[in-house]
Design goal:
Strand content of chain B: under 5%
Mean pLDDT of chain A: 87
Helix content of chain B: over 70%
Structural class of chain B: mainly alpha
Number of strands of chain A: 4
Order of helices and strands of chain B: HHHHHHHHHHHHHHH
Largest interface: A-B, 65 and 62 residues
Radius of gyration of chain A: 25 Å
Structural class of chain A: alpha+beta
Low-confidence stretches of chain A: 172-182
Low-confidence stretches of chain B: none
Distance between the termini of chain A: 17 Å
Oligomer: heterodimer
Distance between the termini of chain B: 21 Å
Order of helices and strands of chain A: EHEHHHEHE
Radius of gyration of chain B: 23 Å
Mean pLDDT of chain B: 93
Helix content of chain A: 40-55%
Number of strands of chain B: 0
Chain lengths: 182, 438
């Protein structure tokens, strides 16, 4: 993307940033990403982001965990096939408890794997084109434009109350087609 | 809250990470001495054998298992506050969620030590792992003790991951203000978090699932702990009441420990504007609720003994109230059910000294509750000729002291080195009027 420039508009107020994002939809520039110190509802609405797919990983982990817990209990029980106190060798009620705990454990592990892979963490490249104030009290809207059109984009952010920074490249690309290109 | 800006929230929390005073290091030193005392007692017991403790026949379960149940109980309020109250969108939990989660992680770690200590021959602990021995015998998955290994291990892993996930955006905030080697450490710890909308999109969803999964987990864990007892046919233990009774008791003690820790912390770190009296009052109201459930369970145990027409059960409960351990029993009843009723008085539940004093008494009462249940059960069983008594030895008390010192030591180290309030959630409350999640 060497033919594009990235302009960083920094806003003090999340609602100002959300308004700028909405206005960008009618402008000839693309929104690359938005940084915020917390998940701001107004920004999420303005970006019209889709629901995350982390839940599929969580579900897959849970299903695997339940059957893995049950299978481990049954497998180990049949290795010593001796009835004790008249109890069945494969006792489903106690084994269900093992299955339940493993469901939770593997759901959480799936959740973590889903979160890290979807959010692409750890990844330190993003820190090179990032303003540290975005973790404190600023909302950063990064938009891209063709080289030579930066002045228009800068003016666009300034008109909406933003402070402007300029980057030559963006390390972050749309991860699953959900990046809100206008 | 609304009088603060985002930057002021960061400043208040980040100020707590400044180099500590000499008093802090002095307290750390004293707590370390306590930890070493506990470690020395454990080393002595390992060298001479489990007989160094007061366990005997019939009271083979002593202080170590009391401590185990006590610390697992303490661990429960962290998940209640961070997961269950998150799902209910109770915004007042935001300033205390981080400290409560941290408390959970440390309490589970300490609880997990006690089965090791109780084993005596600690090097045999791998017998509990799903791994066959030389005769190809595996652990018995029908045993509640094996359920317990799985439940506590799951709880430990989930608590740590939940805690770290919640911490991630705040670690990035610390990174962005730090310099030198601290910046390098926090850069690695924050994994390159930049707060981009893609990261938040997956984070909020993942956090919601964490809360949704931790909620049934927290209920299951103490239910499983209660089945360590309830699945035995010992009088006073063999009851279906045990699971809800233990879960309510765990949350009761955990909330009391939250008050015990939060009250000095808000004073020392000047968090009064965030952890204000409304937050403390809400914890007190929740304690009234859990205290009433615990009180109801105490009464129901007596009702069940009477209604069962089982003379052994009736004798076990008669002896609890008037036998050799009557002092422990009445400390339990008064501290856990009667004293928390003082929180019905608004003036008391908004008074910081009263809140602190009552929270300490509940902690004491809940430790005695575990004493009464565990020791009282096995000491006075079916056979009168096999009745016995138990008293902890100095070695056991040294290990008990060490566990408390370790808990407070870890908490103090955390409070000075990591953000002890969630800056992200406080800012979110300010900006959105609520916690994570969409």
């Amino acid at each position: 993307m060497a033919d594009r420039s990235y302009v960083f508009g920094l806003f003090r107020d999340g609602n100002q940033a959300a308004a700028a994002i909405k206005a960008l939809r009618d402008a000839p520039w693309n929104i690359d990403r938005v940084h915020s110190p917390f998940p701001h509802h107004g920004i999420f609405e303005a970006l019209r982001v889709k629901k995350s797919r982390v839940g599929y990983f969580t579900l897959a982990g849970g299903v695997f965990g339940f059957f893995a817990g049950l299978a481990l209990s049954i497998f180990t029980a049949v290795q010593w096939n001796l009835i004790v106190s008249g109890k069945p060798i494969v006792a489903l009620i106690p084994f269900f408890i093992v299955g339940f705990e493993c469901t939770i454990l593997f759901s959480v592990l799936g959740n973590i794997v889903g979160f890290l892979t979807q959010a692409r963490l750890p990844d330190f490249r993003g820190l090179k084109v990032y303003d540290p104030r975005c973790s404190e009290d600023r909302f950063g809207v990064v938009a891209s434009c063709a080289k030579g059109e930066q002045e228009g984009l800068k003016a666009f952010f300034r008109e909406r109350g933003g402070e402007v920074l300029l980057f030559d490249s963006s390390p972050v690309t749309a991860d699953d087609g959900n990046a809100p290109h206008v | 809250m609304s009088q603060f800006s985002y930057a002021q929230i960061d400043k208040t929390v980040l100020d707590t990470l400044r180099p500590p005073s000499l008093v802090y290091w002095l307290i750390i030193f004293l707590l370390s001495l306590g930890v070493m005392t506990g470690a020395a007692c454990w080393a002595y017991q390992t060298a001479v054998g489990i007989g160094a403790g007061g366990q005997n026949i019939p009271v083979a379960w002593g202080t170590y298992l009391i401590n185990f149940v006590f610390w697992v109980g303490i661990a429960h309020s962290g998940t209640l506050i961070s997961a269950i109250l998150h799902l209910f969108r109770a915004g007042w939990r935001n300033p205390i969620a981080r400290a409560a989660e941290t408390m959970t992680v440390f309490a589970v770690c300490i609880a997990g030590l006690f089965p090791f200590i109780h084993l005596g021959r600690v090097w045999m602990v791998y017998y509990m792992l799903p791994y066959p021995n030389q005769r190809l015998l595996w652990p018995n998955f029908q045993s509640p003790l094996v359920f317990d290994v799985i439940a506590i291990s799951t709880y430990l892993i989930v608590s740590i991951l939940f805690w770290y996930t919640g911490l991630l955006p705040d670690l990035a905030t610390v990174r962005d203000t730090a310099v030198g080697w601290r910046k390098r450490i926090f850069t690695i710890l924050s994994m390159g978090w930049t707060g981009s909308h893609e990261q938040w999109r997956h984070y909020t969803r993942g956090y919601l699932f964490f809360a949704a999964l931790a909620t049934p987990l927290v209920i299951s864990v103490h239910s499983v702990v209660s089945w360590d007892f309830a699945l035995g046919i010992v009088p006073g233990w063999h009851s279906t009441l045990f699971a809800p009774y233990f879960v309510a008791g765990a949350i009761h003690s955990g909330l009391a420990m939250v008050l015990t820790l939060m009250i000095p912390m808000r004073k020392i770190f000047r968090f009064e504007a965030f952890i204000n009296r409304d937050v403390l009052e809400n914890i007190a109201k929740t304690i009234v609720f859990t205290g009433l459930i615990v009180g109801y369970a105490y009464m129901l145990e007596y009702f069940l003994a009477w209604y069962s027409h089982n003379v052994v059960e009736q004798e076990a409960f008669r002896w609890r109230a008037v036998g050799e351990y009557r002092m422990e029993f009445w400390v339990m009843v008064v501290c856990n059910t009667l004293i928390p009723l003082l929180f019905f008085v608004k003036r008391i539940r908004r008074s910081v000294p009263w809140l602190f004093g009552i929270s300490v008494l509940i902690n004491i009462g809940m430790w005695y509750e575990r004493f009464v249940i565990i020791i009282g059960g096995v000491a006075h069983g079916f056979m009168p000729h096999a009745w016995g008594l138990y008293a902890p030895t100095g070695i056991e008390l040294g290990i008990l002291l060490g566990s408390f010192c370790l808990f407070f030591l870890l908490f103090l180290l955390f409070a000075k080195h990591l953000p002890s309030m969630s800056m992200t959630e406080l800012k979110e409350t300010l900006g959105n009027g609520g916690g994570h999640g969409r």
